[in-house]
Amino acid sequence: METIISAIVLLGVLIFIHELGHFLIAKRGGVGVEKFSLGFGPKIIGKKIGETEYLISAVPLGGYVKFVGEDPDEEVKEPEKSFTNKPVGIRLAIVSAGPIFNLLFSVAILALVFMIGVKVPSDSSAVGNVKKDGAAESAGLKTGDIITEIEGKKVDKWHQMAEIIHKSPNKELSFKIKKENGEIADLKITPKAETLKDVFGKDHEVGLIGIEPMIVTERYNPIVATVKGFERTWDIIYLTFWAMAKMITGDIPAKNIGGPLLIFQKAGEFANEGFLPYASFAALISINLGILNLLPIPVLDGGHILFFLIEIIFKKPVSIRSREVAQRVGIFILVSLMLFAFYNDIMRFLEQ
């Protein structure tokens, strides 16, 4: 039950932020809003305030904002509030606002996380956890020890040390260690050869000695945290598009695509770990929701954006017939993707 509640809260907030973007920019642009709904399908509860009816509907996997005059054939009592009658720039801004609000919401969440404090692996050469029965433990390496040299080469960063160890499977290495009491010790450690998969699913043999970096908590002031929020959001956007491209080329298996069931599962897991992991997961899903809606697929915001850009370029709107055909194609693509994601979720669950 906690998993379901945490997932519904997560999706509810992100959908609300998305639709709020459409709503606020529509109001700013003078467009009337008939309905603001969280969820699809039959109405559960609703209340009309002014011209807008605010709803919570039965299916919590989305939401919508219904604009006055959204249908070109619709008769409108107040033409000045009609979405269709507004300049294309205003319509483009309204449609783009949903995904943009999701991306900005991610920045806000991550900025809060950076202000509260994030636990990150230290890049120093200090040893954190030492795995039981590993090569490091057998050689006498302990938590808190600082590796200063490997094979006579000075190291003070974790990535420098890891690079040497990874390139030396089954090769005895000489380590110089500074103990917590200040003493200097010389150890001989042979990295164990292990096969690891990279992000493309390809196997690579590397050397490992069974140690992990120190975990440290870093906190930032609001300005720096906001900058880092933008940076982290951009990094995730870049990696998401990179992963999508690799899935298209087949370098990353398409079975990694997840759907609502995976989101529900992960939301529960992160909620149990605490506020910061749950908030970070919410930021990730918010970014993915924003990116998904920006894809140029008819029926999604990205499809409408594409139509409006065509209208700007050719100085006339896309014909209703063309839009109807494109929307049917878009619905087919979207339903296919959802079914594929559900299939992956079910197979993932059965394999556990």
Question: Which range does the strand content fall in?
Answer: 15-25%
**N-C termini distance:** 20 Å
Number of helices: 9
> What is the 3D shape?
elongated
Helicity, as a percent range: 40-55%
Low-confidence stretches: none
Number of domains: 2
Output the strand order for the largest sheet.
6-5-7-8
Structural class: alpha+beta
- Mean pLDDT figure: 88
Largest sheet: 4 strands, antiparallel
Secondary structure tally: strands:
12
Radius of gyration: 26 Å
N-to-C SSE string, H for helix and E for strand:
HEEHEEHEEHEEEEEEHHHHH
Summarize the structure.
The protein has 352 residues and is an alpha+beta fold. The protein contains nine helices and twelve strands.
Overview of this protein structure:
By secondary structure, this protein is an alpha+beta fold. It has 2 domains: 2-29 and 86-115 and 224-351, no CATH class; 121-217, PDZ domain (Pdz3 Domain, Roll). It has 9 helices and 12 strands. The protein has helices at residues 2-28, 88-116, 135-139, 158-166, 222-249, 260-273, 275-294, 301-314, 320-351; strands at 33-49, 52-67, 118-121, 127-130, 146-150, 153-154, 173-178, 184-189, 192-197, 203-208, 211-213, 215-218. The strands form 5 sheets. It has a 4-stranded antiparallel β-sheet. It has a two-stranded antiparallel sheet with strand order 1-2. The chain has a two-stranded antiparallel ribbon with strand order 3-12. β7 and β8 (184-189) form a beta hairpin. α1 packs across α6 and α5 (222-249) packs across α7. The longest helix is centred in the last third of the chain and has 32 residues, at 320-351. The chain is elongated, with a radius of gyration of 26 Å. The two termini are 20 Å apart.
